[in-house]
Structure prediction request, 679 residues.
Amino acid sequence: MALRFDDSEGRRLPVYLLLDCSGSMSGSPIEQVNQGVSLLVGELRSNPRALETVWLSIITFDSEARQLMPLTELSQFNAPTLQAAGTTAMGKALQLLNDAVEREVVANSPDRKGDYKPLVFLMTDGEPTDTWEAAAQAVKKRTERKLANIIAVGCGDDVNTSTLKQITEIVLLMRDVTPQAMQAFFKWVSDSVQLASDKADAGAPDGAGVQLGAPPPGIEIVM
Amino acid sequence: MGEERNPPVTQPEPASQPEEPVRNAEGVSTLWRTLEPEDATDPVPHEECLRVTGSAGWALVGASLRGKSHAHDGTYREDSFHLTSVNGWHVVAVADGLGSCARSRVGAAVATRSAVAAVAGILNAENGRAWEGEGPPEPSGGGSAGASPSPLRRANGEGEAARPSGRDAEPVARAALQAGLEQALVELTAEAERRGLAPRDLATTLLLLLHRVDRGSDLVATAQVGDGLLAAWQADGSVRTLAEAAQGEYGAQVVPLTQNGAAERAVTQAQIRRMEPPPRMLLAMTDGVADDFFPPEQNLPKLLEHLDRVALRQDADTALLDLLRYEKRGSFDDRTLVMLFPGEGEAPAEPIAAGAAQRELSPPVLASAAGEGEAPAEPIAAGAAQRELRPPFPASAAGEGEAPAEPIAAGAAQQELRPPEAPCVPREGEGPPEPSTVEAAQQELRPPGFHLGAQP
Prediction:
């Protein structure tokens, strides 16, 4: 008598992590990223809203870019162990992101409620070493068409925030890449994703933007 | 380049493995809590349901349920509904207070209550005028749950005859919808002012549906602000949406009643139609239900099948409430649904409506029920069938499914079942944003966090 639904019928909140795994990230930074991803997944799993809605993907870039984890539901997600080496093929990663969103995210249509707007977190500690402008433009166009919310965080002194500004309006800067700052950052990503999933099934007024958690200490907003 | 593989520094801990039992087979989390709100202001009952006996054999049944998300957080339900039957008209309002707005639960309650009162006012006044010089209206039994008691007229049959010819119901319906939307906005704004809040803090959607059996067809009038769904289950079994709600590419963008021009736009886009043959059911629901059956033309039938059975029951209201407790992954919003259906006569295919179901003090009046519908109704002892809140329904009796039940013409009499009416009140800001709603994407810097892309 009770109404039954298929597991696959729910709407998803896609979350993409674009992580810089170039050589300069090696050592403590990449370890911190690994821990951060674990922390993120663990925290999200303990929130029933996130657990039911969040799907996570990881795209990494060094000399190449690859989608290490396709968009995967949280309960099935095995966080990979990342290693750092090579250069910074951010352009390729952005291109991959574009393709992945195009392929994996279900848009609204008259026949179906699509996924919620994807959240993208891009983390890098350097300048792209490949051609990136075209891909960045395509990504930015996505945000302008409100098809995604993209947050870029630059780590350390070598990062060029004006490059990141060409990808998204929302740019954060982690000047000192300390374990504390890195952990705080992933905690913040977790909070922001949970905020989004809290809202996933409730209405918000037209014009309201996506809300992020307060940026943690050690991370500033680049205006 | 730098091929240095560094030894793990601190905790080498790789990644977490998925441990299973956090989701059940349907993908629903097992981690949901149910908490009572600590905030005692503007309390709203977590659930309520109501059955009202209408005219012409129709019945109105509504239920509203706090969503898992609010239960998990220990916050109040923000959906609201109101319904009444007046002078042959059936009036329904449902509203969904916006999650991100501090006192939206107050807004939803004020909007539905004031809209229904204003609509009923127009329908009363209009009928009163119509009767002048036409001889006294046919007295009929019944009272109204609505704010304005007035002689209840049969919507068809003899009641119809008493109606002055030439006075169309359409303009009356239009005026009533307009009055309902306008009054809701006025009262919502006044309520905000009283509290020293901005109207936005009470932001809510508002869906209105009016129905009347009129001159042999069914007049259905609808207006909608924000998301949710008004729909008809037509005689041929198909589902027809009765109002349009705008939608963005990803996720929904909600335009609340308090937004500039929203009420006016809804008035302009109000839809008034006659349906013939009569619809099997009319429905009003908030997005907490509607989204789970999108698109309605295709997926609502799955729900209708169940509603059809619920309609047969004497305890249709509590049965509806129970039905709304279904589990669906990613569905944790408040759920509200109101259904209107003919209990007898018209659609022969359609079995029947549940019996009366009035509550304890069924007004004695209603025994007058000479036959609310076309069909020689089984006149009924109103008194009979009612009573207990929830008669243990003999599954066989009304035939859970197929067998047409004994039509019981309930008289008028409506009664509020549940917590009559949620005096709603405020709550402190809550809600995070809707991931997809980024229209203007950004803007207000909310205190604790900040908004994407806000660029002062």
